[in-house]
Amino acid sequence: MKVTVQLFAAAKAAADCARVEVDIPDSIAVDGCTVGALKKQLLEQVPQLQPLAAGLLFAVNATYAPDSRQLTSGDDVACFPPVSGG
Q1: What is the percentage of the chain residues whose pLDDT exceeds 70?
Q2: What is the C-alpha to C-alpha distance for residues 16 and 36, in angstroms, rounded to an integer?
Q3: How far is CA 24 from CA 2, 20, 29, 75, in A?
Q4: Cα of 84 vs its chain's centroid, Å
Q5: Local structure of 17: helix, strand or coil
Q6: CA angle, corner 60, sides to 55 and 61, nearest 5?
Q7: What's the rounded mean pLDDT across residues 49-61?
Q8: Which residue has the higher pLDDT, 21 or 73?
Q9: Contacts of 13 (CB under 8 A, 6+ apart)
């Protein structure tokens, strides 16, 4: 299973790209890939994101997603560091 992750802000700068195609091993995908499993694979594939790992947030289909969120084919996944503003 391949999942395209859009990177934003400091995550984009650290990875030096706006999108990453993450390969999810069949052993994980067969049981249903979660955001947590995707994050683990993303950090292995793009080690430059490791310093940001503790604070990275994920959104699936424009909604914040916890690590337990199951992914399905065609989901729109975004990864970004915490944001603030007002």
Answers
A1: 92
A2: 22
A3: 6, 12, 6, 14
A4: 20
A5: coil
A6: 140
A7: 95
A8: 21
A9: none
Q: How far apart are CA 75 and CA 65, in angstroms?
A: 12
Per this entry, what is the length of the chain?
86
* DSSP β-bridge partners for residue 57: 80
Q: Are strands 2-7 and 77-80 parallel, antiparallel or unpaired?
A: parallel
Helical spans, DSSP H, in the chain: 9-15, 26-29, 35-45
pLDDT digits (tens, 9 = 90+) for 8-45: 999 999 999 999 999 887 777 656 789 999 999 999 99
- Regarding pTM above 0.90, the answer is no
Beta-sheet strands, E only, within 1-86: 2-7, 19-23, 57-60, 63-64, 77-80
